Amino acid sequence: MPDPGQVSIDLTRPVHVSLAELPERWVPVADFAMSLTLYKPDRTTERLLAVWDASTSELVRLPVDMGERRSGLEFFGLVLGGRKVLLEGKRKRRPRGQRLCLMDIGTGSERWFATDPATYGAGVRGSVSPDGGTIATVLVAYHPDDPRGESETMSIAVVSLIDVATGETRRLFAAGLDGAGGWGGSSGTAWSPDQQHLAATYLVVDDEHPDGDFMTVVLDLHGDVVMPSRMAWLEPNENAAWLDEQTLLCADENGEVAPVNVFTGEAGSPFAARSPLARLGNRFVYQNHQRAPEDVPPGEAPIDRAGNTRRLASAPTVTRLSSVQLDGQDDAAWLRIDAHVGVDKLEFSSRLSITDM
Question: Quick one: fold of 7-354?
Answer without folding.
Answer: Neuraminidase (2.120.10)
